[in-house]
């Protein structure tokens, strides 16, 4: 196998597995909240995609 063929195979494998990196985006609302010391704060977080059975 030539070096060029090997490099092309590695690049193809990299593109094939690119979507399976496990990256998830977490979105928090509100993005910031100003409160006084001692106040209760509630933040809501949502994820960009399902994570196993823990998506909700």
Automatic annotation (TrEMBL):
UniProt signal peptide: 1-22
UniProt KW keywords: Signal
Top-level taxon of origin: Eukaryota
Alphabetical list of Gene3D superfamilies matching this protein: Immunoglobulins
Entry protein name: Uncharacterized protein
């Amino acid at each position: 196998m030539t070096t060029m063929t090997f490099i092309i195979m590695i690049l193809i494998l990299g593109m094939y597995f690119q979507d399976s990196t496990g990256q998830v985006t977490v979105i928090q609302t509100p993005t910031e909240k100003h409160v006084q010391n001692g106040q209760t704060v509630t933040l809501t977080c949502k994820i960009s995609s399902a994570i196993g059975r823990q998506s909700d």
